[in-house]
């Protein structure tokens, strides 16, 4: 347990520092803009490029791993969507945001730093694949469902073009694709370029976690949604459990890959869920509250997941 605390203290400590700094300085939300720009367009893309470009190409083409992980994640999405739509009689738009709140983890900001810290460099490839492919699918599903609701007024062709542009030109996707190309062609990188990429990549986790703390402080808890009673356990407990069981059931994956996927699934609701809600004017305050509450609760649940991984309590093979 001491090892787990040693892993999580600097990790959640950076979030806490960002939270406290925002509370003390009372800077406006706009002040965070350039830091977020640096994280999204420079630091995290450099980290993804570094991880992918240094990996043998045969490990990067595990479509079976990606398909299985996405199927597990979207089973949670579908469950929460059906609960919101048919049991609670919410609108399609509200049900969509609620489903994302329980299935869209903070894998971009929190995932790479925590997984590499806890599991080492062997977790780099599954982390990069999950972050890129899950984000790409989320970018497609959200506007598509909102269009069905009528919250998106763009024409079908304009919507499809905007989705394609958002997916293909996203810095995470571009940097990963470039890393794929370098790995596939076994290209030699200049020492100066490698140092430059390393320099940027080292800033990714600290900056992202600090920015996350600031973001949480700028969105105070005003309203606790009723749905939080089932969204929180779905996100922090059911999601990692389903990912673990499904990957084990399919089989053929390195234990580190399964542990990395499970760890990423255990992360709290992504701040992008609030952004999506804000973009379409639905479930905004409640999305903000869900992010804050799942992040606070994840201190306990992520600690438990890390303890299970580090202690060897998770069976290496669940199904014979």
Can you characterise this structure?
- The chain is mainly alpha-helical.
- It has one domain: Na+/H+ antiporter like fold (Up-down Bundle).
- 78% of the residues lie in helices and 0% in strands.
- The protein has 14 helices and no strands.
- Helix 2 packs across helix 10, helix 4 runs antiparallel to helix 11 and helix 7 runs antiparallel to helix 8.
- The longest helix is centred in the middle third of the chain and has 28 residues.
- It is globular.
- The model has no long low-confidence stretch (mean pLDDT 92).
Per DSSP E runs of 2 or more residues, the count of β-strands stands at 0
The first-level CATH class is given as Mainly Alpha
Distance between the termini: 29 Å
Question: Which fold name fills CATH's third level, the topology?
Answer: Na+/H+ antiporter like fold
Helix content: over 70%
Q: SSE order, as H and E?
A: HHHHHHHHHHHHHH
How many helices? The count is 14
CATH architecture classification name: Up-down Bundle
SS strand fraction? under 5%
What is the radius of gyration computed over CA atoms, rounded to a whole number of angstroms? 19 Å
User: What are the segments in which pLDDT stays under 50 over at least 5 consecutive residues?
Assistant: none
Q: What class, by secondary structure content? A: mainly alpha
Mean pLDDT: 92
The global form is globular
Q: How many domains?
A: 1
Sheet with the most strands, sense and barrel status: none
